[in-house]
Write a structure and sequence with these properties.
Layout (H helix, E strand, L loop, with lengths): L22 H5 L1 H5 L11 H30 L3 H25 L4 H7 L12 H9 L15 H12 L3 H11 L21 H11 L6 H32 L11 H8 L5 H9 L1
Helix pairs in contact: 3-4, 3-6, 3-8, 4-10, 6-7, 9-12, 10-11
Length: 279
């Protein structure tokens, strides 16, 4: 020990990890911090890689929470579901702010690395697709980008085939004695959700008597928070892409900004938003 350091100079912190698990060991930091492999000689590619890898880590947590929330609602366990859904919304806020960092990349900087990306694109993120399917935006065509990886396709297809968060929420309303049309309780879960006036009336009965249906009322607001955060995430994605590549096509073959604008029009929980006009 350095003679100038007293035994208490590190406030009792353990300093020798020759035989014990360290912080880096627990977090597998060797693997995580060595997963950045730039393909170009450009300085800015590191930003692009870290931005997308950290987003995928946040999405991993989001999926963990979203799947558990859907299962909890299906089991009538609303208290833990609310906690999980609130966490999903906060994760989305983190992802919104992540675009602020990527937005520091200028068009010339991105142009220097774009040739090295090939056809890789966030459009191909299997985790993002599971999130969208879990939130009800079901499209069979979105399975195709994962067909070359059977183990990943199985996870995406499972999310496509099972009831979404909103589907399970409507089934919960029905179990509580609120009239929900049979067409929205047992249907082909692989099909996109279609808004229904009777479903809006079901939610209106909750919102017009919140004290009587407090937990269902809270569920409606958790869904509103979640979609609000999701819209911001999508919008920030759009503005960042437009700032960096303008109207160019995306590396994955989409129309880029045009495709992202179209995605802004998707409404996940339509009756939750429509009922506000009728209250």
């Amino acid at each position: 020990m350095n003679p100038s350091e007293s035994p208490t100079s590190h406030h009792g912190a353990k300093l020798d990890f020759a035989r014990d698990m360290s912080y880096g060991d627990y977090l597998q930091l060797d693997a995580v911090l060595n997963a950045q492999r730039p393909l170009s000689p450009d300085h800015n590619e590191m930003l692009f890689i870290v931005q997308h890898q950290t987003s995928e880590l946040w999405m991993k947590l989001m999926l963990h929470e979203l799947r558990a929330a859907i299962a909890a609602i299906a089991s009538d366990e609303l208290a833990p579901a609310f906690k999980m859904l609130a966490r999903v919304s906060r994760i989305m806020e983190q992802l919104v702010h992540a675009w602020d960092v990527l937005a520091t990349m200028t068009p010339p900087e991105y142009s220097a690395i774009r040739p090295y990306l090939g056809h890789s694109s966030g459009f191909q993120s299997w985790q993002y697709r599971c999130i969208e399917f879990g939130l009800g935006n079901k499209k069979a065509a979105m399975l195709k980008p994962h067909s070359h990886r059977p183990e990943l396709l199985a996870q995406v297809e499972a999310a496509w085939r099972t009831p979404s968060l909103y589907d399970e929420s409507l089934r919960l309303l029905a179990r509580r004695g609120i009239a929900v049309p049979a067409s929205h309780l047992e249907r082909d879960w692989t099909q996109p959700y279609e808004a229904n006036d009777a479903v809006e009336q079901a939610w209106l009965s909750v919102y017009r008597a919140p004290q009587q249906h407090w937990d269902l009322y809270q569920l409606g607001e958790e869904l509103t928070d979640l979609e609000d955060a999701f819209r911001l995430w999508r919008f920030r994605h759009l503005t960042t892409v437009q700032r960096i590549i303008g109207e160019k096509r995306g590396t994955g073959g989409t129309s880029g900004v045009g495709y992202l604008r179209q995605m802004l029009e998707v409404v996940l929980f339509p009756e939750i938003w429509r009922l506000r006009t009728d209250l």
